[in-house]
Amino acid sequence: MARPRTFDEQDVIDRAMELFWTRGYETTSVTDLTSALGVHPGTLYRTFGDKRALFLRALAHYHERLAAGLAPTLLEGGPVLPRIRAVLIGWIDLAVRQDQPRGCLIANTAGELLPGDEEVARSVRGVLSAVEDGFLQGLRAAARQGEISPELDLPAAAAMLTMLLEGLQVVVKADSDPRRLVAAVDTALLALTSGRG
Questions:
Q1: Is the N or the C terminus of the chain less surrounded, counting Cβ atoms within 10 Å?
Q2: Are residues 30 and 77 both part of a single domain?
Q3: If you compute the radius of gyration of the chain from its CA atoms, what whole number of angstroms results?
Q4: Is it the case that residue 194 has pLDDT exceeding 60?
Q5: Which pLDDT value is given to residue 178?
Q6: What is the pLDDT of residues 109-151, one digit of tens each?
Q7: pLDDT exceeds cutoff 70 at 4
Q8: Does residue 3 fall inside a structural domain?
Q9: pLDDT band at residue 175, thresholds of 50, 70 and 90?
Q10: Same domain membership, residue 70 and residue 53
Q11: How far apart are CA 106 and CA 108, in angstroms?
């Protein structure tokens, strides 16, 4: 009879995601994982396969936990542009509070592992697509509410916001004063409203 699992699989994935996010894929060893997660190596391999398989599960968890939540956040009701601004500024504020800002798991992964790993690339594209779609849904709501011009190329604007978000999370890792980036965010958002009638 198989021994019952003594750990919460989803909790292990969540904590593995945090470890990969902080340390990166290559520098996180199986020993690091088993030590931080409190899981025996044999259990880790039986449950998740190898380190790479656990990493792919961590990327999927990041997608579900963070990227998929963007659209609902932007569509909670009321003006959308302040919500978009709050999402972007929120990452700056987080970097200010961290001793060593870690940026975005997806941006970090793209820089570390791509090109060269098609399965990881699919995961990265999936997260970026979800973020872009979240921004697009928010911008469509903003256009309906008159916050931005309905003539604005909304898919292009959503792609621009996605690039801004990802780029922002790379820059905050090296910037000695991430709060100065608030003005850059406001300039980008101003461009969205410049054609409003």
A1: N
A2: no
A3: 19
A4: yes
A5: 94
A6: 999 999 999 999 999 999 999 999 999 999 999 999 999 998 9
A7: no
A8: no
A9: very high
A10: no
A11: 5
Contacts of 7 (CB under 8 A, 6+ apart): 37, 38, 39, 43
Please give the tally of structural domains in the chain: 2
Residue 183 domain flag: yes
Distances (CA, A) of 120 to 13, 33, 75, 108, 175: 16, 19, 30, 12, 27
**Token pair for residue 94?**
């987080």
pLDDT value of position 1: 45
Question: What are phi and psi for residue 80, nearest 5 degrees?
Answer: -90, -40
**Pick from 104, 148, 142, 97: nearest CA to 124:** 104
Token pair listed for 171? 């820059």
Contact, 170 vs 107, CB < 8 A? yes
**Alpha carbon distance 42, 31 (integer Å):** 12
Q: In the numeric block, which tokens belong to residue 157? A: 């604007």
- Torsion sign, CA atoms 88, 175, 33, 106: positive
Rounded to two decimals, what is the model's pTM?
Answer: 0.92
pLDDT of residue 196: 61
> Cβ(160)–Cβ(188) under 8 Å?
yes
The token pair that represents 180 in the structure block: 């100065």
